[in-house]
Specification:
single chain, 117 residues, alpha/beta, five-stranded mixed β-sheet, 5 strands, 34% strand
Amino acid sequence: MTGIMYDLRLDTTAAADGIEIGVMAAAPGTVRVCVSGASDLHTAALLHETLLIALASHRTTLLLDLQRVAFCDCAGLNALLAAGQAARRADRDPRITATGRPVRRLLQLTDTTFVLT
């Protein structure tokens, strides 16, 4: 896993083998997190950490763009659900704005679509 330094004032990108996560301020009151690659056992911790940092640093609505996620297993799903739960505890609105087939299918199979939309 790659070591990452976060400058919370600027847009950031986190990367590890198989995944890239971009965090950027979007419209006022929102932060957009774009994920591409594989969200699996090897990358879920980085995804979870990045989502929590985005929530803590931007203190706004969390928009998740998962359109370019090519693979997502239960570890990746758990990272997404845990971040969604943390957002709701902080009175923020987590929303998936785009999904590709792998994520959409996993959310449907696990009946968790409603949690992040």
